[in-house]
Request: fold
Amino acid sequence: MRIGLVGYGHGGRFFHAPLIATLPGAIFVGVVTRAPERRQQLATEHPGVPAFDSIAQIVEAGVEVLVISTTLKGRPALVLEAIEYGVAVVSDKPFAANAEQARALISAAEREGVKLSVYQNRRWDSDYLTLRKLIEAGALGTITRFESRVERYSPQAVGNASGGGFLRDLGSHLVDQALQLFGPVELVYAQLQYSAEHPTVDHGFFVCLTHANGVISHLWGSALQNSQAPRFRVNGTAGCYTVEGLDGQEQALLAGKNPKTEGEHWGAEDHRRWGWFEQGAERERIPSQKGAWNQFYRQLQSAVQGQGELPVQARDAWEATCVLDAARLSAERRQVVEMATLEGVEWK
Reply:
């Protein structure tokens, strides 16, 4: 499968290019980037992989899939351009600035018969895969409350609007995971944090979701948290699962490692980062599943070849965007927002 990449910033360089370049049965056709610095980085890190000036050029070189990993502001136009060329498209997250924009992109893909997916790679985090296995096995009983956090201390990230603010950018992962685990949302309440220097770009958030099945999801994100709380704390009638820290695939990719260099050890977590099952006085370690961000591209490869579903459906990303829109509205109004039903929505 011939895959092209548009954008070689932080996301394209570290979270896409290494996985594309090491995907069995795939050819890394090239990268659309005009910046001399990015082109030099590409030549150093992926010798022989060419740089292109435009989507038109890379399409002419022959691609079956285009991965769009640019800043949110300009990304929807690039996604639409790629759709118009008739190749399968992967959009980085956040998928869109709002639900209306998301619907327009999905409608365009459906009109053109183009496969469109969204890079929700954290569906293949080690801790998330472990939690999903526990829930599906009934080990926690009936889930009552889901707590999910990604908190960092990254002052340099404050004011970075490239992803539309921390809620839109990081929150898209946390909302997507909550929806995948517990289904549709009926009520949304949110609080956003801003700095005096950047009063319009949120750097922290809290979101409370009331799911239709009764589960309550509490989601936190922050760029200025010195003391991180558990990544997950999930309460059920039969026990509680907690796990600390972040999945290690991000740091591995930033360090220059990839699934090819690590082989069967890719995505494996040190036993000291395994989570805990607790009920009363009972407490035991739960071995973590291996993280598998590369599984996104494996499933994409099969789907493009007509052998399965896309790894992430674009309409899932639209649903998450609707929840994020409601969260921002809730924060602005300082009140709970009732989600309109998403079933039966007409698409044009």
